[in-house]
Design a protein that fits this description.
By secondary structure, this protein is an alpha+beta fold. It contains one helix and three strands. It has a three-stranded antiparallel beta sheet with strand order 1-2-3, with no helix packed on it. A hairpin with a 5-residue loop joins strand 1 and strand 2 (18-20). The longest helix is centred in the last third of the chain and has 7 residues, at 54-60. The protein is globular, with a radius of gyration of 11 Å. The termini are far apart.
Amino acid sequence: MNCHGCKWLDRYKMDGNGYCCMVVRSKTQSEKVRRPEMERCELYKPGEWKTRWETEKEEQK
């Protein structure tokens, strides 16, 4: 359970750690740093980090 595939991560490291840009809007998350052992927040959206915004672009068409 980690957010390495979450579209809201600004950075993603190979070890699964990352930085969440949406933490201020989350009710369950207080730390901006995301580690693989942390529980997902309620804003979690799964996906491949490299293609995280492609679904947004498709919806706008």
